[in-house]
Amino acid sequence: LSSLALPSSMHLIQVDSVQRWMEDLKLMTDCECMCILQSKPISIEKDEQNELMLSSQYSTCDNLQLLLKRAWIISTELTRIAQKLEKNRWQRVHSMTVRVNCHVRSMINEYNTFTRNSSEEMHQFEKLLIDKCSEFTAFTERCIQTEDEDILKSMKTCVNETLTTVAQYFGQLIELVLTHEAQNLLRQIELSDSVYITELAIRSLFSLTQEGAHLCRIIAKEGGVVTLFKICRQDCFRCLYPQTLRTLASICCVEEGMHQLEKVDGILCLADILTDNSHSEATHAEAAAVIAQITSPHLTFTQHLSSFLENMEEIVTALVKLCQEASSGEVFLLASAALANITFFDTMACEILLQLNAMKILLAACSDKRVVDTPYSRDQVVTILANMSVLDQCASEIIEGNGIQLLMEMLFEKSSSGSSAEVAACERVQQKSAVTLARLSRDPEVADAAIKLSCIPRLIKLCRSPTERNNSDSVLVACLAALRRLAVMSPEGLEDSDFQQLVKPRLVDSFLLCTNMEESFV
Q: Which part of the chain is the Protein inscuteable homologue C-terminal domain (predicted)?
């Protein structure tokens, strides 16, 4: 159904299908019971009010999660109804419509048991949605009572229109509900002097941000970034800084969050936190996470970066210190990720890093398995090295810190878990280490060190063996470039077949040869 507009706030969590079914079973069976009882509550005794609502035993955070799960089920059901309708499977359409009707009523009843101060607009949409669902059920019931094709064809248009309207009302109601809940949480944070109440509200807000970009936009539009930075400027809430900053990092993945951050001088506040040695390492790490988020090279909006440049030197200095003193892999990862992102958008950052002796600090950290313990951390380090390698002074620093040996080791990076995320990180490590070698090998001393460490045979292996590079084209291109740079310095290090196939032709021809190469050729 092309005109069906389902709400963009629905966020499908990728989990095992059996696990998803087990989680949804309670909601589904409750719904079937409600179908039979026509949405009337069950009472054990006549005079006793005993509402068996799913949400009664949960906190506000759990209630919101329950609401989102129920909304996800309704959204999924509406999509399935549209699919069945296209195939004219009227019996299935009707049974699913009845189920959606009950789910909608259950969702509204559940929500009204724990919410407060619902707006008149929300009540109007609740009534509109319930009425339209009832109309929808009545339509589909009439459809299963006739077999006349002409009548069904004419009714299908009405059913389609009604389905579209139900989806629109449902999306608007969910939008209102989530906005209302975001407003409530932000009001709690604004008005409360209690650390405990404020912490609960921030935790619930963070939980909402994990449901996707749409919810982050709602929170940002309702002033979430402004409210959270107010917390970060009050000493009485210092113990809440890590959780508050983590929530800010989530909200700042959307453009609306960035605009808010700019308005409240958020970058200046982050710089103050990072340079204040009285804060805990956890607070510094979460501030680094916000910096990493707002400097991500994947973001298309960069208006905030002008104010960032004004505070860059002190931020970079604090992040290098955090890398040097990191007590765990997680802290190092957050600090190094922020540094890696910063090196992408301004070469001045690379010059500051060179002045701060960052190359030596990062190379030393890589030999400490306590802090650099995953391909993700090595990915950040090699990103910084690759971006710094454009500076001529970088070559001597790399040699002094035994950096060529590290780059050689990174060419052997392999995933231990086999997870897609870790495999992708390993590919990035291999690619960037080859890029760094190619850039640095313009210096004869670096090229000589790389050749002595047998970089050429490893690069050839990566070019010729698709499994060694996990069939990655980006790794192949980087390795061909590095190999060609080293071959200029030491042509005798290559066999004639390697030279003829990997160095002498145009790079694109060597690339095509290697991508079509069978494993048995190696």
A: 70-522
